[in-house]
Amino acid sequence: MLWDDPVTKGLAKSLDVAALRQKVVAQNIANLNTPGYKRSYVVFSEELARAREKLSLRLTHPRHIPAGEIAGEPQVKVERSTSRRSDGNNVDLDQEMLDLVTNQLHYNMLAQKISERYATWRYIINEGRG
User: Fold this and answer.
1) Which percentage of the chain shows pLDDT scores above 90?
2) Angle CA(23)–CA(107)–CA(61) in degrees, nearest 5?
3) Per-residue confidence (pLDDT) for residue 120, from 0 to 100
4) Consecutive H or E run containing 21
């Protein structure tokens, strides 16, 4: 029951995507001074939107959670069309640091939401006894 919950599954999937984003941004920062290096980024929201379009369920309220799993997978893409420096590297340290902080805040929020869900289940299982 706990593991079949679509909200918890969605939160866990989002945590995985945030962890992948953190890894990709860290890799970009590590290659800041590598000639010819092109920054990578994670694309997930577009995949998620495409997967949602495939669902044939009818929702009666915009805040309802659709049944079934959403099969969208994150993708790591490389931004090849730009160059910030003459050596071909296109990593912008300010942008990467902003992405790092934003992603960390997002990850922390997701982890907190999962923790709250488990606390609620624990409360229910213990019949309201702390």
Assistant:
1) 51
2) 125
3) 87
4) helix 6-30
